[in-house]
Amino acid sequence: MLGSIPVTSAVAPVLDEANPWLNAQRQFDNAAEILKLTPGLRAVLRQVRRELVVRFPVKLDDGGLRMFEGYRVQHNLTRGPAKGGLRFHPETNIDEVKALAMWMTWKCALVNIPFGGAKGGVVVDPATLSHRELERLTRRFASEISVLVGPDSDIPAPDVNTSAEIMAWIMDTISMEHGYSIPAVVTGKPLEIGGSEGRPSATGRGVTIVALEACKRLHLDPAECTVAVQGFGNVGSVSAELMHDAGFRICAVSDVFGGIYSPVGLDMRALQDHRKATGSIKDFPGTHYVSNSELLQLPVDVLVPAALENQITVRNAGHIHAKLIIEGANGPTTPDADAILERRGITLVPDILANAGGVTVSYFEWVQDLQSFFWEEGEINRRLERILQRAFHQMCDEADLHGVSLRLGAYLVAVKRVADATAVRGIYP
User: Is this prediction's pTM over 0.85?
Assistant: First the structure.
């Protein structure tokens, strides 16, 4: 029995609020305590199963070589193949990737798709590389982590600073090394090589679906709700557009350079045209500049942090005006900030549900690739909506039953599913 496994892992060190891995473990510990998991189960689930660190050279356009460091981490594979994105970012590190892998485990379990959690990254600013250098880096990294990835073992997907094109390079690299095409080895690919309809907008669509469900729970009329969206990449921009289409008034958005704010609301179509023409959201007519940190504290009803982790902390949680927070990013709120928001009566829909639209449609893509049978976008969107709505209500039921936050309610659903599967399978050998 797992309960008889001795706990040999050390107690987590004094918490650093900025360390996402310690934050992820702390969130798990809160759920494990309520679920009364045995010490053995806790020891298994609070650590990652595998972490691969690779260092590899890439030939630059000028003929020189540059070394890069990359990671692929698998947290848990009990319920199925590992699933998780790849990010290219100069500040990524092994602790961040471990946290993201754990969050992916809970995310997949919460929406009840048969995946475990994984994540990967390369320490690089893609803007410093040419297109050819980026392709060489991607293909070399794909080859380095090929010992882990595969359609039945570990399936990467896009994340921060990665794209459908980068997924195509990875799929091609793995396929060439095997001598035949393996479309199901990655998701988030272009349609031409087995990608799925609806995948590019899936995460932002999921944010919108759960925002509408949360408004029903709080008796809020979307047409009377103002919204600020931090981050205007794929997740944030799609979230802003679809929430606008659903009746919300989008008053502020931001990117890495800062944000724009207009209390009367933004014309999202005109803003997208402006960004395409200028390359930025800056200087959009009728708005004034706000920093990313200022955006979080604007007088709006709904806040969507859709950038990076550790944006809402003890330093600013007491100054947030929004009644409702929808976590479009992974880990944007620290546990200590969570406690402050909960005391202030602010409702927060956690990342493991709010941004689960992406992995859900990635699951659809994987299934379609394995079957070589593809669905229409309308069917994909309907299936996505049903899955997220069901998970939302299961989360709320657990939260209400135990008198806890929605985050803890979500963790109670997800951790129990993984713990039950672990207990049923037992420990090999």
Answer: yes
Active site residues: 119
pLDDT tens for residues 211-248? 999 999 999 999 999 999 999 988 999 999 999 999 99
- 289 three-class SS: strand
The full set of domains in the chain, from first to last, is 49-183 (3.40.50.10860), 202-354 (3.40.50.720)
Phi, psi of 199 (to 5 degrees): -70, -45
Other beta carbons within 10 Å of 307: 22
Give the torsion through C-alpha atoms of 166, 79, 207, 18, to 10 deg: -80
In 3D space, the residue among 356, 374, 357, 361 whose CA is nearest the CA of residue 193 turns out to be 374
d(CA 17, CA 31): 19
Say if CB 388 and CB 358 are below 8 A apart. Answer: no
pLDDT digits (tens, 9 = 90+) for 168-222: 999 999 999 999 999 999 999 999 999 999 999 999 999 999 999 999 999 999 9
Q: Across-strand partners of 68?
A: 56
